[in-house]
Write a structure and sequence with these properties.
single chain; about 350 residues; alpha+beta; seven-stranded mixed sheet; five-stranded antiparallel sheet; 9 helices
Length: about 350
């Protein structure tokens, strides 16, 4: 059964007072009816997420993963609506509306989104949908939105991961603002464990508790350590930062499986534990190119089989990857397409949860 599209009325009240002015191209009138494509990768939670001292600013250090959302947008200059499928992607329809208006283009169009990212798990599925949508609209109307332009388009819609930047970044997700570009590190294998359920990012951010002064100062130190580890491509130090961030998160957002995963990580000499701070996922980090990683991954998967949740394997994005790949072609220098996709599920998924897997 095909999904019924959701319609976003371009004359409706949402987003009608945009003041953004992203770069516009001169090809719009000649591209009537053209379809554009946009892609954005997701994340495996965050390498670090917390609150900084003094300002109380909430921030994250992104953890880009090799799984993508892909949006296609067919611009219809004479249309009065944006229709989206699947129908529940309403925020993407609103984003398409804002993007057309900010670029000075009339009409609406047909938006379709496909994703390799599970929803409500802390893998930036919604952020990836929105960034992919902005890029698809730009492609359809013959213009380009910079990452800062996309930040402006997203700011009033929801707290957002920094997936508009093709590297690891420190990002103020509530303000939807870049703090700092941090660079890239070698790719990692992630033994991803899902504790179950879903988390709504907006509700989570509204309900998130306060952090103590001591915690905010520790987060500042961890951010300094993450910056240094990324600069030096030091995965062991980065793993320690991620583990500590997961422990601090568990003080306010209980993670029942964290002690067991930490034991498994120690037993196989893993790098550390990554956490979806506003999601349901935890992951054991391993260096992707290490010759012992395949054996360690199998040992971790076997150990996780005794836990009540579900387990799968992902690959982070690293130095030589084409971060815009989106599963449609093999990036030069990064191996086969299968090398970039999530590798495989290990246990049956819960009803209604079907992340992409390799064929």
């Amino acid at each position: 059964m095909s999904a019924q599209p959701y319609t976003q009325d371009l004359d409706g009240p949402a987003g009608t007072t945009d003041t953004e002015s992203p770069a516009t191209g001169g090809e719009g009138a000649s591209r009537s009816g053209c379809a554009g494509v946009g892609r954005a990768f997701g994340t495996f939670g965050e390498l670090l997420q917390g609150v900084l001292p003094g300002t109380g600013e909430h921030f994250m250090v992104t953890s880009p993963v090799a799984a993508w959302s892909t949006a296609t947008f067919a611009w219809e200059p004479d249309a009065g609506t944006v229709q989206v499928a699947p129908a529940h992607k309403r925020k993407a329809a609103r984003l398409a509306q804002r993007a057309l208006r900010a670029a000075g283009r009339p009409g609406g169009g047909q938006l379709r989104i496909g994703s390799e990212l599970p929803e409500g798990k802390g893998m930036a599925s919604s952020s990836a949908d929105l960034v992919a949508t902005a890029r698809a609209v730009a492609d359809a109307i013959g213009t380009r939105f910079t990452p800062a332009d996309i930040e402006n388009l997203l700011r009033d819609i929801e707290p957002t991961d920094g997936v508009m930047y093709d590297e690891i970044v420190a990002f103020s997700h509530r303000e939807v603002r870049l703090r700092e570009r941090l660079g890239t590190v070698p790719a990692m294998t992630v033994i991803a464990y899902d504790e179950g359920g879903t988390v709504d990012t907006i509700s989570y951010n509204h309900a998130a508790g306060t952090r103590t002064e001591a915690e905010t100062h520790e987060y500042a130190r961890l951010l300094d350590q993450a910056r240094e580890a990324i600069r030096d491509s030091d995965l062991h130090s980065l793993g320690r930062v991620a583990t500590r961030s997961a422990e601090l998160n568990a003080r306010h957002n209980p993670r029942p499986s964290l002690p067991a995963l930490r034991r498994i990580c120690r037993d196989i000499d893993g790098l550390g534990i990554a956490c979806a701070h506003s999601g349901t996922m935890l992951g054991i980090l391993l260096p992707h190119d290490d010759p012992d990683t395949a054996l360690k991954a199998d040992l971790a998967l076997g150990a996780c089989a005794s836990l009540p949740g579900t387990t799968m394997v992902y690959r982070s994005l690293g130095h030589r990857d084409d971060w815009s790949y989106g599963g449609l072609r093999s990036p030069e220098g990064a191996g086969s397409a299968g090398d970039l996709r999530p590798l495989r599920p290990f246990r049956p998924f819960a009803p209604g949860y079907a992340p992409a897997t390799t064929a």
